[in-house]
């Protein structure tokens, strides 16, 4: 529809017609210059001139004209149905499913006359409704809200109707997404909303790998509802044997509790553990009282080489800690000649090397790109040569001498875990003596601790780890770590927390995943709902990354059924999504045929419900 944006538009239209006619009449009526033309020719030219002037005048009026296109659409009503099995987990599950079916029918019948109704289901993922079978294992309300916003951002949404039991155990808090929603959201609740007696395992955090004979930490989160004053046993069990336990007495009716245990890894192999809370009287849901985890215990003994320019208490503190572990074989050299063949070592620790009198260039060269190195930087370290080694950190000295730096934990550090007890005490540890300098880390490095100088937390790293050119490397940018060990004993009458730090740092660095030119990255434990994803890196004999070889993998379950896959190439790496597999124990054997050798090694993993 075309209309004018002013009130008396027809006057302007008449004025344009009169003006065009007047100009044409002036140019052609009784004009002696047109005497040579016939009457018909004059009329034709006059008509053309009139049309030309009228069209020009009409176009000049276009700012006053607006085009309106009116399209009528019904508002869109989106109904999202919780498809998780918690909806029908109560004894009256049949009645609940039937009631939901009636609500669906009512929504479609009553709203479809005035609105366009679109249905979704949501659990782990949100998708268009095909079937409502309540088979999803988890519920993510934030996922369905984000999906609706993204899929229908330019549509007229009348409302979003969320139908579920309100249990949200995956994804973001949906309340944090309210600023993204510009339409009303209505909820219909199902399930038993009464708070009942319940003790459940909320989360388990544990490293996926340990070594035979070592100890490893496990951190457990538990939630207790309506159990104030009840003594409840929380235990870790392996093969029906209780390994560790604690009695928890909730001080209120909604109590969240975290417990750390230190467990023995035992012999090599894939080890299954379960965490249980005691079942109490009147507890309806006992399935969440138990959860399990798996670790892969490696048998190989780790050989650690410590090189130093003379004795130092820092290397004594580190060696004493490592000697407590039966899987570490520690060799210390405080003067030359140092070993020249490092092929048998899993980690080299350089204490204040290089110095002015002792170069570390030959040591780093002989270590190649495979053997991890931990640098301890101190007063004797010759910083220009350390920078020239280009191992991931550059230290640029400033005017002045060294300074004292306390440790400030980096909360986003995720390479390995430290217990809450350690996190609480680390800020109290004595300061390390560091260089007064600017520090720069390569992109692949992350600080574990920052330097806190004169009670001001800086961006300078105190301890950092990372990977450069395929080799894991660590830096302790100060000396005096032996004082941390003494302080730990002064506070707790033991060195357990200091030992935890050293063991975690050394275990991460010494675990040489790339010793066979072939790195496979995977999780040892998957939920039944998780997709099984593998990533791989391949290196040639000079440790350059290559992707011109075919990588295959064979996965075998406990019934000796085999599943074979071939990795896809993504950039310079390999990627495989094996999809979903039934729960159980699996082993897999990746295979890579290099020009010089066949690389194949069986590895165990656990797919866990």
> How helix-rich are the residues, as a percent range?
10-25%
Radius of gyration, CA atoms, in whole angstroms: 37 Å
In DSSP terms (H or I, runs of 4 or more residues), the helix count works out at: 10
SSE-based structural type: alpha+beta
Provide the number of structural domains.
5
Model regions low in confidence, pLDDT < 50 over at least 5 residues? 1-6
First-to-last CA distance: 62 Å
Shape: extended
Biggest sheet, spatial arrangement of strands:
17-16-18-19-26-25-24-21-22-27
Q: Describe the largest sheet.
A: 10 strands, mixed
Looking at CATH, which topology of the largest domain would you report? Rossmann fold
E-strand count: 38
Description:
The chain is an alpha+beta fold and 609 residues long. The protein folds into five domains: 2-67, no CATH class; 76-189, 3-Layer(aba) Sandwich (Rossmann fold); 198-298, Sandwich (Immunoglobulin-like); 302-510, Rossmann fold; 518-608, Immunoglobulins (Immunoglobulin-like, Sandwich), CATH 2.60.40. 21% of the residues lie in helices and 38% in strands. It has ten helices and 38 strands. The strands form eight sheets. Strands 17-16-18-19-26-25-24-21-22-27 form a ten-stranded mixed beta sheet, covered by helices on one side. Strands 29, 32, 33, 36, 37 and 38 form a six-stranded mixed beta sheet that branches. It has a five-stranded mixed beta sheet with strand order 5-4-3-6-7. A hairpin with a 2-residue loop joins strand 25 and strand 26 (471-476). The protein is extended and about 120 Å long. The chain starts with a strand and ends with a strand. Mean pLDDT is 81; it is low at 1-6.
